[in-house]
């Protein structure tokens, strides 16, 4: 690209991909400019990390050299339209990493935190929800209590389903993580919709009975129900005034949400596996959902996420960015900058990262009284220690695979 799009003379001189596993696998892109400014982006795609690393190293990094780092939108379009092959998790995660690294650079050059470049703070802080879980109701209630004692204003409640051996959302071992699997190959889980549908309302009733209604209660269905089953669940949870139920049904079929909507007033959230605005166009413009959960790292970076949230704002739909631990501290911080600056912010997921991530990523965000703030360091506000990252080599890991009792594969 020879077109000069800004008055600066700075160019990109290096784009480097670092794969490391400080607590879990993370793929980090580091871009350096001719002025010696560096920016980082998160290119982690859980269970498929090396595909994005290769897409970047083999196909994207060579294209960046010599380009103007200030021309974020043009570079975004060059990587999206210029590839001819568009969308998909690998492509869009790679583009997201470039986008966030360039916003980081822009902030550092301007001496401003990224949220200031996005229009400034629209609120004092970002409401986050924590992940409570338990092997039975008393354990779940103890865990919810811990989050409330720490000041969380919103808690997601997941619990083991009696009669189902392993369930999404349960912590294990040191209590810190439930994904990905331990082994070098995927673990298998066996799902039972009937048992789950009977159990969830009992669990939520217990939570509301013990703690009342002065905090937000959330639940992740993790794509496991058919639309009519999801409608049944939404209806059965209405007395517990859920903040949302998440991913009630697989969302490849956007139209499916119309059916759920017709049957329940429980708010619906979806989008963590979406990669672009086209994945949620009808969900938003036909008001089939209440919260759009697309993430910085899997939906094309800060630039594209802002477009999705702006579209949603027109239809009264609020943001609810995915913030699981497999999104590195870089994309979590980037999400906080977006959350703070958009008008239609709803809720941010906060699944704390596993130690020893702090040896590699130094963050400047804060948590106080249930609200988070990205901090005022120039750029994204996360420093990446490449030498430390080298001490934690990549380990192949997969997400679990779900089956039904007859052995057929079900959504995990
Ligand atoms: C999840 C994730 O946080 C969530 O809401 O659904 O834990 C999801 O399973 C992982 O991000 C997959 O990598
Ligand atoms: Mg989820």
Features:
412 residues; alpha/beta; TIM Barrel; 10-stranded mixed β-sheet; 3-stranded antiparallel β-sheet; 12 helices; globular; binds D-mannonic acid; binds magnesium ion
Explain this structure.
- The radius of gyration is 21 Å and the shape is globular.
- The longest helix has 22 residues, at 89-110.
- The chain has 12 helices and 18 strands.
- The strands form 4 sheets. Strands 4, 5, 7, 8, 9, 10, 11, 12, 14 and 15 form a 10-stranded mixed sheet that branches. Strands 1-2-3 form a 3-stranded antiparallel sheet.
- With 412 residues, it is an alpha/beta fold.
- β8, α8 (256-263) and β9 form a beta-alpha-beta unit.
- The protein has a domain at 117-376: TIM Barrel (Alpha-Beta Barrel).
- α2 (72-80) runs antiparallel to α3.
- Bound molecules: D-mannonic acid and magnesium ion.
């Amino acid at each position: 690209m020879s077109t000069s799009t800004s008055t600066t003379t700075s160019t990109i001189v290096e784009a480097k991909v670092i794969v490391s596993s400080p607590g879990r696998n993370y793929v980090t892109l580091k871009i350096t400019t001719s002025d010696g400014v560096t920016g980082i982006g998160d290119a982690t795609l859980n269970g498929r990390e090396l595909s994005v690393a290769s897409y970047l190293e083999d196909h994207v990094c060579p294209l960046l050299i010599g380009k103007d780092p200030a021309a974020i939108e043009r570079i975004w379009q060059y990587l999206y339209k210029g590839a001819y092959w568009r969308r998909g998790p690998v492509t869009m995660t790679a583009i997201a990493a470039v986008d966030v690294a360039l916003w980081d650079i822009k902030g550092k050059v301007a001496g401003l935190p990224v949220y200031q470049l996005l229009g400034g703070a629209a609120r004092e802080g970002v409401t986050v929800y924590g992940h409570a879980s338990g092997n039975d109701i008393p354990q779940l209630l103890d865990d919810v209590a811990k989050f409330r004692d720490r000041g969380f204003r919103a808690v997601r409640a997941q619990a083991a389903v009696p009669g189902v051996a392993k369930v999404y959302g349960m912590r294990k071992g040191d209590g810190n993580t439930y994904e990905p699997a331990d082994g070098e190959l995927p673990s298998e889980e066996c799902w039972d919709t009937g048992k789950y549908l009977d159990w969830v309302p009992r669990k939520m009733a217990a939570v509301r009975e013990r703690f009342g209604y002065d905090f937000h209660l959330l639940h992740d269905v993790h794509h496991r129900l058919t639309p009519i089953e999801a409608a049944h669940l939404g209806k059965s949870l209405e007395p517990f005034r859920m903040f949302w139920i998440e991913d009630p049904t697989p969302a490849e079929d956007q139209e499916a949400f119309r059916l759920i909507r017709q049957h329940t007033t429980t708010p619906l959230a979806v989008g963590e596996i979406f990669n672009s605005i086209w994945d949620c166009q009808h969900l938003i413009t036909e008001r089939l959902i209440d919260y759009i959960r697309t993430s910085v790292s899997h939906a094309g970076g800060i630039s594209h996420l802002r477009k999705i949230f702006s579209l949603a704002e027109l239809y009264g739909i609020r943001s609810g960015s995915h913030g699981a631990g497999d999104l590195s501290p870089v994309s979590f911080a980037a999400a906080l900058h977006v959350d703070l600056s958009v008008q239609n912010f709803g809720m941010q997921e906060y699944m704390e990262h596993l130690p020893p991530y702090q040896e590699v990523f130094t963050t400047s965000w804060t948590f106080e009284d249930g609200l988070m703030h990205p901090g005022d360091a120039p750029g994204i506000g996360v420093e990446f220690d490449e030498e430390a990252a080298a001490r934690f080599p990549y380990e192949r890991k997969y997400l679990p695979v779900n089956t039904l009792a007859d052995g057929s594969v079900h959504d995990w």
